[in-house]
Amino acid sequence: MRKKIKLTYNAPVTLAIAGISLVATVLSLISGGLIGEALFMTYRSPLYYPTTWIRSFTHIFGHADFSHYIGNMSYLLLLGPMLEEKYTSKTIAGVVAVTALATSLVNYVFFPHSALCGASGVVFAFILLSSFTGFKEGEIPITFILVAVFFIGQQIIEGLTIRDNISNTAHIVGGIVGGALGYAFNKKPSE
Protein backbone atom coordinates (compact mmCIF):
# COMPACT_ATOMS: atom_id res chain seq x y z
CA MET A 1 0.00 0.00 0.00
CA ARG A 2 1.28 3.43 -0.96
CA LYS A 3 1.54 6.18 1.62
CA LYS A 4 0.00 9.51 0.76
CA ILE A 5 2.35 12.44 0.72
CA LYS A 6 1.01 15.60 2.28
CA LEU A 7 2.31 19.12 2.56
CA THR A 8 3.01 20.29 6.09
CA TYR A 9 3.09 23.81 7.42
CA ASN A 10 6.30 22.96 9.26
CA ALA A 11 7.62 26.40 10.20
CA PRO A 12 4.72 28.82 10.68
CA VAL A 13 6.78 31.89 11.60
CA THR A 14 9.24 31.42 8.75
CA LEU A 15 6.51 30.73 6.21
CA ALA A 16 4.46 33.70 7.45
CA ILE A 17 7.45 36.03 7.05
CA ALA A 18 8.08 34.71 3.54
CA GLY A 19 4.41 35.11 2.56
CA ILE A 20 3.90 38.55 4.10
CA SER A 21 7.20 39.71 2.59
CA LEU A 22 6.12 38.55 -0.84
CA VAL A 23 2.83 40.47 -0.58
CA ALA A 24 4.62 43.56 0.82
CA THR A 25 7.21 43.49 -1.97
CA VAL A 26 4.58 43.12 -4.69
CA LEU A 27 2.45 45.93 -3.20
CA SER A 28 5.48 48.18 -2.97
CA LEU A 29 6.52 47.49 -6.54
CA ILE A 30 3.06 48.02 -8.05
CA SER A 31 2.58 51.25 -6.07
CA GLY A 32 5.92 52.67 -7.19
CA GLY A 33 7.29 52.33 -3.67
CA LEU A 34 4.53 54.30 -1.93
CA ILE A 35 3.12 51.36 0.04
CA GLY A 36 6.61 50.18 0.91
CA GLU A 37 7.55 53.60 2.24
CA ALA A 38 4.30 53.97 4.18
CA LEU A 39 4.24 50.52 5.79
CA PHE A 40 7.36 48.43 5.15
CA MET A 41 10.31 50.76 5.64
CA THR A 42 11.68 52.34 8.79
CA TYR A 43 13.15 55.82 8.81
CA ARG A 44 13.33 58.88 11.04
CA SER A 45 9.83 60.20 11.68
CA PRO A 46 8.26 61.69 14.82
CA LEU A 47 8.02 59.24 17.69
CA TYR A 48 4.43 60.28 18.38
CA TYR A 49 3.34 58.92 14.97
CA PRO A 50 1.90 55.44 15.52
CA THR A 51 3.25 54.40 12.11
CA THR A 52 6.80 55.07 13.32
CA TRP A 53 6.38 52.26 15.85
CA ILE A 54 4.48 49.98 13.49
CA ARG A 55 7.19 50.34 10.83
CA SER A 56 9.86 49.55 13.42
CA PHE A 57 8.54 45.98 13.19
CA THR A 58 7.05 45.78 9.68
CA HIS A 59 10.16 47.03 7.86
CA ILE A 60 11.42 43.43 7.78
CA PHE A 61 8.67 42.56 5.28
CA GLY A 62 9.55 45.20 2.70
CA HIS A 63 12.19 44.52 0.06
CA ALA A 64 13.59 46.79 -2.63
CA ASP A 65 12.95 44.26 -5.41
CA PHE A 66 12.60 40.54 -6.06
CA SER A 67 16.34 39.95 -6.03
CA HIS A 68 16.51 41.42 -2.52
CA TYR A 69 13.47 39.35 -1.48
CA ILE A 70 14.82 36.07 -2.90
CA GLY A 71 18.24 36.59 -1.33
CA ASN A 72 16.77 37.06 2.14
CA MET A 73 14.11 34.37 1.82
CA SER A 74 16.64 31.77 0.66
CA TYR A 75 18.50 32.01 3.95
CA LEU A 76 15.35 32.46 6.01
CA LEU A 77 13.70 29.36 4.53
CA LEU A 78 16.89 27.36 4.98
CA LEU A 79 17.48 28.27 8.63
CA GLY A 80 14.00 29.05 9.97
CA PRO A 81 12.51 25.54 10.06
CA MET A 82 15.50 24.14 11.97
CA LEU A 83 15.35 27.01 14.47
CA GLU A 84 11.59 26.73 14.96
CA GLU A 85 11.99 23.01 15.60
CA LYS A 86 14.74 23.56 18.17
CA TYR A 87 13.43 26.68 19.94
CA THR A 88 9.65 26.68 19.13
CA SER A 89 7.79 28.99 16.79
CA LYS A 90 6.81 31.32 19.65
CA THR A 91 10.46 31.82 20.63
CA ILE A 92 11.51 32.44 17.02
CA ALA A 93 8.70 34.98 16.64
CA GLY A 94 10.22 36.75 19.66
CA VAL A 95 13.68 36.65 18.07
CA VAL A 96 12.23 38.18 14.90
CA ALA A 97 10.45 40.94 16.86
CA VAL A 98 13.52 41.79 18.96
CA THR A 99 15.72 41.85 15.86
CA ALA A 100 13.27 44.04 13.93
CA LEU A 101 13.03 46.53 16.79
CA ALA A 102 16.78 46.55 17.47
CA THR A 103 17.73 47.15 13.83
CA SER A 104 15.06 49.84 13.54
CA LEU A 105 16.21 51.67 16.68
CA VAL A 106 19.87 51.59 15.64
CA ASN A 107 18.92 52.93 12.21
CA TYR A 108 16.70 55.60 13.78
CA VAL A 109 19.37 56.83 16.20
CA PHE A 110 22.56 56.54 14.16
CA PHE A 111 21.37 56.93 10.56
CA PRO A 112 18.67 59.62 10.61
CA HIS A 113 18.84 60.20 6.85
CA SER A 114 18.63 56.53 5.81
CA ALA A 115 15.62 54.29 5.35
CA LEU A 116 15.78 50.58 6.12
CA CYS A 117 13.78 47.68 4.71
CA GLY A 118 14.24 43.95 4.37
CA ALA A 119 14.70 40.86 6.50
CA SER A 120 18.49 40.74 6.37
CA GLY A 121 18.85 41.64 10.06
CA VAL A 122 16.59 38.67 10.86
CA VAL A 123 18.60 36.49 8.48
CA PHE A 124 21.83 37.39 10.28
CA ALA A 125 20.16 36.74 13.65
CA PHE A 126 19.15 33.30 12.34
CA ILE A 127 22.67 32.62 11.04
CA LEU A 128 24.28 33.33 14.40
CA LEU A 129 21.47 31.63 16.34
CA SER A 130 21.83 28.49 14.22
CA SER A 131 25.49 28.17 15.16
CA PHE A 132 24.32 27.42 18.72
CA THR A 133 22.34 24.32 17.79
CA GLY A 134 25.02 22.02 19.23
CA PHE A 135 25.84 24.24 22.23
CA LYS A 136 26.86 22.63 25.53
CA GLU A 137 27.22 24.48 28.83
CA GLY A 138 30.75 25.74 29.43
CA GLU A 139 31.70 25.52 25.74
CA ILE A 140 31.76 27.98 22.88
CA PRO A 141 31.22 26.25 19.54
CA ILE A 142 34.02 26.85 17.05
CA THR A 143 31.30 27.11 14.40
CA PHE A 144 29.88 30.12 16.27
CA ILE A 145 33.28 31.84 16.31
CA LEU A 146 33.85 31.16 12.62
CA VAL A 147 30.35 32.26 11.62
CA ALA A 148 30.73 35.43 13.68
CA VAL A 149 34.13 36.20 12.17
CA PHE A 150 33.10 35.45 8.59
CA PHE A 151 29.65 37.01 8.50
CA ILE A 152 30.04 39.94 10.89
CA GLY A 153 33.65 40.58 9.85
CA GLN A 154 32.56 40.75 6.23
CA GLN A 155 29.84 43.26 7.11
CA ILE A 156 32.27 45.48 9.00
CA ILE A 157 34.75 45.45 6.11
CA GLU A 158 32.04 46.09 3.51
CA GLY A 159 30.50 48.82 5.67
CA LEU A 160 33.83 50.63 5.77
CA THR A 161 34.90 50.08 2.16
CA ILE A 162 31.79 49.77 -0.05
CA ARG A 163 29.17 52.45 -0.58
CA ASP A 164 25.91 50.79 -1.58
CA ASN A 165 22.32 50.59 -0.40
CA ILE A 166 22.96 47.59 1.83
CA SER A 167 22.64 48.19 5.55
CA ASN A 168 25.66 46.45 6.97
CA THR A 169 24.67 47.86 10.35
CA ALA A 170 21.37 45.93 10.27
CA HIS A 171 23.33 42.77 9.48
CA ILE A 172 25.71 43.38 12.38
CA VAL A 173 22.91 44.22 14.82
CA GLY A 174 20.93 41.16 13.70
CA GLY A 175 24.01 38.99 14.19
CA ILE A 176 24.60 40.38 17.66
CA VAL A 177 20.96 39.76 18.61
CA GLY A 178 21.09 36.19 17.25
CA GLY A 179 24.39 35.43 18.97
CA ALA A 180 23.30 36.88 22.31
CA LEU A 181 19.94 35.11 22.25
CA GLY A 182 21.54 31.85 21.10
CA TYR A 183 23.85 31.97 24.09
CA ALA A 184 21.02 32.94 26.47
CA PHE A 185 18.65 30.23 25.19
CA ASN A 186 21.26 27.52 25.59
CA LYS A 187 22.79 28.56 28.90
CA LYS A 188 21.58 26.39 31.71
CA PRO A 189 20.23 28.32 34.70
CA SER A 190 22.48 28.39 37.78
CA GLU A 191 21.44 25.98 40.46
Task: Explain how this protein is built.
With 191 residues, the protein is an all-alpha fold. It has one domain (12-186): Rhomboid-like fold (Up-down Bundle). It is globular. The model has no long low-confidence stretch (mean pLDDT 87). The protein contains eight helices and no strands.
Estimated helix fraction: 55-70%
CATH architecture: Up-down Bundle
Low-confidence stretches: none
- Shape label: globular
Distance between the termini: 53 Å
Structural class by SSE content: mainly alpha
**Overall radius of gyration:** 17 Å
What CATH calls the topology is Rhomboid-like fold
At the first level of CATH, the class is Mainly Alpha
Question: Could you write a compact summary of the structure shown?
Answer:
This protein is mainly alpha-helical and 191 residues long.
Which tags fit this structure?
191 residues, mainly alpha, single chain, 8 helices
Summarize the helices and strands and which ones pair or pack.
Layout: H1 12-30, H2 34-39, H3 50-58, H4 66-87, H5 89-110, H6 120-130, H7 142-161, H8 168-186
Helix pairs in contact: 1-4, 3-5, 4-5, 4-6, 5-8, 6-7, 6-8, 7-8
